[in-house]
Specification:
Helix 8 links the parallel strand 6 and strand 7. With 247 residues, this protein is an alpha/beta fold. The protein has a domain of 156 residues: P-loop containing nucleotide triphosphate hydrolases (Rossmann fold, 3-Layer(aba) Sandwich). It has a seven-stranded mixed β-sheet with strand order 3-4-2-5-1-6-7, with helices on both faces. The protein is built from eight helices and seven strands; from the N terminus they run αβαβααββααβαβαβ. The two termini are 21 Å apart.
Length: 247
């Protein structure tokens, strides 16, 4: 998936005429196909390490969903990094950093409507938290995700990279599946292969597929059985990553 020129801190496809909205619309469509007959309401994005573009992918997927007329909520679930909500002209609640459990206690109090993008809402991160894992495992967070599932057409969680924290795996049971974001020149193949193998062998993790981010290659999707998962974007025919094609 290509990365457009930077706008503020994140390269977002906010312009209705952006040439990059189509790949993210295709990404959204592929996610629906990945779950087959099951309804996809809550999806989690992560990566094996930092710098692979998971936050960019989460933001732009949310924008594409909202532009398609879907009531969409983007949750900044990376409590190890500062919020990027200002990129969408949204200011996080400073009180959230002081009492994060109270912040997450009521969905209506912590979500924000994104100006200039109809149907898009964001739940900004309260900022870097020392007890991030405990917050993500809390009853407040579980209830918030249950509430969001019932109120939005699509909920997207942006979570920390897997090489340092297991936050994504703590949240995955409360979602309809996980997408792994990769990027040529950043992704370590050993970590990627290990993560994919773990996800595909797991009976508990719903692995939807992978995204190649920032690759200057033609995009294509794979025709698979209706019971199969699928890769979201082209693997550039690298044999060492062949297992990710899920054929």
């Amino acid at each position: 998936m290509p990365l457009p020129d930077e706008i503020d801190d994140l390269p977002l496809v906010t312009d209705a005429d952006s040439l990059y909205i189509e790949p993210y619309e295709r990404f959204r469509g592929n996610l629906k196909r990945a779950t087959g007959t099951k309804s996809l309401r809550v999806v989690l994005l992560t990566s094996t390490m930092n710098g692979e573009g998971k936050t960019i992918s989460a933001y732009n997927l949310a924008i594409a969903s909202a532009k398609a007329g879907k009531r969409t909520l983007l949750i900044e679930a990376d409590l190890r990094s500062p919020s990027q909500a200002h990129t969408l002209k949204v200011t996080p609640d400073p009180a959230g950093a002081i009492e994060p459990l109270r912040y997450y206690g009521h969905l209506s109090d912590c979500i924000r409507l994104v100006p200039e993008i109809e149907n898009l809402y964001i739940l900004p991160s309260p900022g870097v938290q020392r007890q991030a894992a405990a917050i993500l495992e809390s009853t407040e967070m579980r209830h918030l995700l249950e509430d969001a599932r019932g109120r939005f057409d699509l909920v997207i969680l942006d979570t920390p990279a897997l090489n340092r924290y297991n936050d994504a795996l703590l949240l995955e049971p409360h979602t309809d599946g996980l997408v792994l974001v990769t990027r040529p020149g950043y992704t370590e193949e050993g970590l990627l292969n290990e993560a994919v193998e773990q996800f595909m062998e797991s009976e508990d993790i719903q692995f939807l597929g992978a995204v190649i981010n920032g690759a200057d290659i033609p995009l294509q999707s794979y025709d698979l059985d209706e019971d199969s998962q699928f890769i979201v974007e082209d693997l550039d025919n690298r044999p060492d990553l062949e297992k990710i094609s899920m054929s």
